[in-house]
């Protein structure tokens, strides 16, 4: 998915107020302490990231990763809390001066993807996922996020005495979604009291992104990433010999018709001139032999929306299509739409985003910070953003000379990270944190 390289009227409007004067008058400049810390930490961050990349762990299984994170935080003199939402790690850096509270988040989990890169530190890990043997790979870049936040922790601890306020470091498991019926991720961290004793005034997160060129940052105020919901539909017929389909009820043909008809939900029943929406079937399982019509077929997929009314309408439409198309073939359908609580829309606080725009510009230059279009991908950072003012931004990860529109995307087995994004991510997160703490402490 290619990102448009422009600043939208919405963000320009936000910047037209008092914040724009700050952004324009302050001539964004990278803080010297950020530059010094980034130079010192560049190699360690690369090494941490390569280590995490070579040892990926799936959602709710991040035992080694969380242990490494906690070990490093303890070496910095911090007292991390572990075991939050299974393998979450949280530590608080208390500055030497009074000031606001900020939270920074990095996710740690990998994906059930067999790596197809030639990197010397490529993952060789394997596992069984949903009954199938597969590789495990940091195909989304969470290894980079974890390494970046470790670097930010180093830098903040080194300047702790002069730091105004407090910073919560959140190393989160299971952003990609807990397996089966397990709970996990941001929602479980909050459920287990993440903000009970430390309610941040602002929270920041980043994501390396293949659709953004290395050296650039993409951010937008308001909605950024879609709500994400999973569905499960089981079509049941009657098993029979493949040579005599009239003796049974074919759930495969009914399922094929269902998938085709479901495409009309977005194309004909949803007002996509208002906001985009997606209904995708991701897997279909049915039958085990070429000449046997099976009893049932199971289908799973995802729904992406930005509007709650559209979201609920699509749920109802998909259930309706499933039940009536199956009935037209003499079959039945059990439609769990959705099959569990999904991620809400990831929405950046507009005022906070406008306020922190100069901080991002200071790192890569004003011309290299732009507003992307709405992203149909989802992020459980959305749960934090519903609790406190937040900003989530994309750091470019595709090397210069490679078109981001055709580069292997996040979640691809060929996803390759330009490691310059580690340095930019560190600088951006550190600059945003220090600028926010300083400006908030002075108000």
What does this structure look like?
This protein has 443 residues and is α+β, with helices and mostly antiparallel strands. It has helices at 9-15, 18-25, 32-54, 63-75, 142-158, 185-191, 251-269, 308-328, 350-364, 381-387, 420-442; strands spanning 81-84, 88-94, 97-107, 126-129, 132-135, 164-172, 202-213, 217-218, 222-225, 227-236, 240-241, 278-285, 292-293, 296-305, 332-336, 346-348, 369-370, 390-398. The strands form 5 sheets. The protein has an 8-stranded mixed β-sheet with strand order 1-2-6-3-7-18-8-17, with helices on both faces. It has a 4-stranded antiparallel β-sheet with strand order 12-14-10-15, covered by helices on one side. The longest helix has 23 residues, at 32-54. The radius of gyration is 23 Å and the shape is elongated. It starts with 8 loop residues before the first helix and ends with a helix. The model is unreliable at 1-25 (pLDDT under 50).
β-strand number: 18
In DSSP terms, counting alpha (H) and pi (I) runs of 4 or more, how many helices? 11
> SSE order in H/E notation?
HHHHEEEEEHEHEEEEEHEEEHEEHEHEH
Global structural class: alpha+beta
Proportion of strand residues: 15-25%
State the shape: elongated
Major pleated sheet: 8 strands, mixed
Low-confidence stretches: 1-25
Mean pLDDT: 93
Helix content: 25-40%
Rg from Cα: 23 Å
- The strand order across the widest sheet is 1-2-6-3-7-18-8-17
